[in-house]
Amino acid sequence: MTDLVEKTLHSKTIFEGKVIDLRVDTVELPNGETSTREIVKHPGAVAVIALTDEGKLVLVQQYRKPLEKLLFEIPAGKLDPGEALETCALRELEEETGYRCRSIEHVVSFYTSPGFSDELIHIYFTDTLIRGERHLDEDEFLENYEVDLQEALQLLKEKKIDDAKTVYAVQYLQMQQ
Amino acid sequence: MTDLVEKTLHSKTIFEGKVIDLRVDTVELPNGETSTREIVKHPGAVAVIALTDEGKLVLVQQYRKPLEKLLFEIPAGKLDPGEALETCALRELEEETGYRCRSIEHVVSFYTSPGFSDELIHIYFTDTLIRGERHLDEDEFLENYEVDLQEALQLLKEKKIDDAKTVYAVQYLQMQQ
Q1: Whole-number Cα distances in Å, A72 to A18, A108, A161, A165, B93
Q2: Which of A35, A138, B23, B149 has its CA 20 to 30 A from that of B30?
Q3: What ranges do the domains of chain A cover?
């Protein structure tokens, strides 16, 4: 293998926000030339594919400001500092949907945009839900829905399910059939 | 449905880069309170699930600076301004792998990180490859690989396939079996 690694020559912090930080790295390319890389730092996230006793997929509908539109998504949220992945999965599921669960398992983790961000999202699965009460963050507004596979595929077709983790979740459900 | 829309009160550009821009919007929440949203603008991208005549998945290995590691990914790249999606798919496939193809079809599109970015990636599929010569961008360094499904699943297990579009591609292949 050719050495493909890019060596950092300089790193400049541009912005430190409440969710993301932005920095620009000047790098030495494998051929000795220099270039810059724009890098968004993110704390990472967890999402849950949750199936009800009737086999329906639990979704939340929320407004996504970057897209200026409403999306149906599987429950998800950012990791708190030092928080264990499974703790985060259980917390976000309960906060956003009111559901707790008797067991939960890790399915897959993936970087959402490896070209410009380090965001890593961890996908969990549960079908052992226990109904409770939801309690949203103060700046979080969302509606709850439960859909069967046909309804999920219809939402996908209508571009109302339109994000990586939820498209993955629908494909995951299709594979379980 | 409760009105979940967030109204923009103020928008501040923080950074304009060669790949992404960053702005912070001050928004009015559905309950009348204000909050801020950190938003990364991205031109959008196209990726190709390309199968050789032997049914192998075409991958490129490249160094991803935000993760400081090498990933195996399906061929992909950013949209040029005004570029048609299919044109971009064919261009990136040829640039990164040398392959052209007789036909290509759209599979799905998804937002990678709707919480903080508008990046939309369009996934295409082809199994009608014609071998040619690759010609990379000047700041692009990558190696080409072709793997069968078992090898792809092994790379997934080893976290060498580790990003949204490629994890999706492997699941897509599994569904075709």
Answers
A1: 24, 20, 5, 11, 31
A2: B23
A3: 7-41, 45-176
